[in-house]
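FYI - complex with zinc ion, inputs then prediction.
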Amino acid sequence: MLTEREFKDIKEQLLKQIESFPPAQRESAKKKIEAMNAEELEQFLIQNNLIKKTDKCIFCLIAEGSIRSYKINENEEALAVLDINPISEGHTLAIPKEHKTIENSPKTLQLAHETSVILKKTLNPDEIKIESSTVQGHGVINIIPLYKNKKLERKKASEAGLRDLQEKITKKKEKLKKTEKERKIKIEELPKAPIRTP
Ligand SMILES: [Zn+2]
């Protein structure tokens, strides 16, 4: 992302450069440049090979903790965080911790499946949709709980809402883990009778 200073300087430079354009062209170019916000200007510079995109992608920034996120699950290779603009309650993104695609990170897929089970048990949706894609070279799996009678609609979630949901899901996850452990212990405690063959 361009800093405010860079944004101003680059805009000024561009406006100087177009002074040599024929008048008709100059006017429309000037209008376009002046209307651009920082993001659009950056895109314009990248498209015209005037700068190279070396900045880290948004998912790398989330993974390294530079962007605030609401983590609900994790394994050694991947993270599952709540989408801050969810299209349904519990909409979660599973992402590799490193900049790679889902094909190159089977553990992300595994985390997505585990997370969908936790979401199912916490929020009781009718169904859960799992979709993988790649954004700026970084793999991302959308885990979307689907509820009957509720249409999908992208909405900005409040910080408090996200925090509550994170807590609710994390608590359920811990509970599920505990039950799983207890179940394993019980199975191990079963007397080992010799297997009979008819
Ligand atoms: Zn990345």
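The chain is about 45% helix and 15% strand. The chain has a mean pLDDT of 89.
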